Amino acid sequence: QVQLMESGGGLVQPGGSLRLSCAASGTIFNVNAMAWYRQAPGKQRELVAGVTSGGGTNYADSVKGRFTISRDNAKNTVDLQMNSLRPEDTAVYYCNAVARPNYSPRYSSYWGQGTQVTVSS
């Protein structure tokens, strides 16, 4: 089974920084894309940033210029560097990966358990 584990969340003051990390583990043959989503209370889950296996990235308009997504294809990890954090960034952040386990002929979408990011003074 493919498993994703996030780390790096916590409480930070406005203007501060956090770095989230996600590691994919299990019997993974290939990971096509990885991304970070977030879900704030009362809101739907939204894409924060994504990165393809080729290194292409995309960001939500609300985080452009502040967040940076990076990926290590060899290690199947993806990080999200979050700078200039704002209270509206408060959410549970989820790692997502489109991957194919070595025992499966098809790709599937996998989710981590989420890590809480709270931006508050």
Q: Can you describe what's shown?
A:
The structure is a single chain. This protein is an all-beta fold. Helices cover 0% and strands 58% of the residues. The protein is built from no helices and eleven strands. It has strands at 3-7, 10-12, 18-25, 28-39, 46-52, 57-59, 67-72, 77-82, 91-101, 108-111, 115-119. The strands form two sheets. Strands 2, 4, 5, 6, 9, 10 and 11 form a seven-stranded mixed β-sheet that branches. The termini are far apart.
Spans of at least 5 consecutive residues whose pLDDT stays below 50 are none
- What series of H and E elements makes up the topology? EEEEEEEEEEE
Mean pLDDT, all residues: 93
Largest sheet: 7 strands, mixed
CA radius of gyration is: 14 Å
Count of helical segments? Answer: 0
As a percent range, the share of strand residues is: over 45%
Distance from first to last alpha carbon = 40 Å
Helix content: under 10%
Structural class category: mainly beta
> How many β-strand runs?
11
Q: Which descriptor suits the 3D outline?
A: elongated
Summarize the structure.
The protein has 121 residues and is an all-beta fold.
List keywords for this structure.
121 residues; mainly beta; 7-stranded mixed β-sheet; 4-stranded antiparallel β-sheet
